[in-house]
Amino acid sequence: MNIRDLHYLVTVAETLHYGxxxxxxxxxxxxxxxxxxxxxxxxxxxxFERTNKQVQLTSIGADIVIRAxxxxxxxxxxxxxxxxxxxxxxxxxRLGLFPTLAPYLLPNLMPLLREAFPNITLLxxxxxxxxxxxxLEAGQLDCALLALPIAGDALATAHVFNEPFYLAVARGHxxxxxxxxxxxxxxxxxxxxxxxxxxxxxxALAVCHRVGVGESNHFRATSLETLRHMVASxxxxxxxxxxxxxxxxxxxxxxxxxxxxxxxxIGLVWRKTSARAPLFxxxxxxxxxxxxxxxx
Length: 296
What we know:
The protein is of the alpha/beta class. Helix content is about 40%, strand content about 20%.
C-alpha cells in the first residue's frame, strides 16, 4: 500500500466512476484501474463491484475507505504542521457551519475573520451537524462551528457564545403583544419544529420537554425560513435563535424569554490531532470577543 493508491481508492469511492476518478487524480483510467487491482491483490479482498454501468463499494471496501480517509487526513496534517512552522496564519481553512446558523452569522463574521487573519482563505461548507462531524473526522473539514456539547474524545472544542432563543409568533397571535414570555407559556401552544437531522430541532425539543410540550405532528419544516413562513401564516409558534431574528420581523414578532432564558451554546470544533490548533484557538477568541458585532 502507498498514499497514492489510497488517494485513488477514496476518489473512486467519492465519484463511483473510474473515469471521473482518474481525471480528478490526473492519471489515465487504465493506470488507476491497475493500481486499485494491485491494492485488492495486496489486501486479498474485493474493494469495488464493477459493471458496465456502475461502480459500488463492497462492505469491506466501505470500511477500508473510512480508514483510508483517516490516513490521508493525517498525511495532510504532516504537511500542515511543516507549513505552520513557517507561518501558521497562512493558507486555506475549511470551515463548516450548520444551516440554522450559517446564513445569519456569516455576513458579520466573514469581515471580522478577514481583518484578523488577512492571509487565511476560508472555504465554507454548510451541512447538518451529523455530516459536518463525519467530514471533520475524515479530514474533509479543518474546523466547524457547532452547537455544544459535542460527543467524542477525538475533538477539541472552544466555546464562543451562547445564543438565546426567542418565541416566534405571527403579529396576530394572542401572545404577540407580550413583552416577554416564560417557557411554561408554550404548554397550550401548537409548536412547529424542523425535521430530523437539524440540531435546532433537538435543542427546541429539549426546551419544550421542560414543560411537557410536544410538537405538532402535522408539519416539520426542512429549513428555518420555511418554518418562519409557516408560523407567520398560522396560529402556531416556534423557537427562533437570536441571530435568525435580526432583520426578519415582517409579519412576525420575536418575544424574549424571561429568566432563565433558553439558549444554545455555540463552539468552534476541530480534531485534537490538528497541527493548526493554535489558529483555531485564535479564531475562537475573535468570535468570542466580537459577539455583539455579530449580533448587530
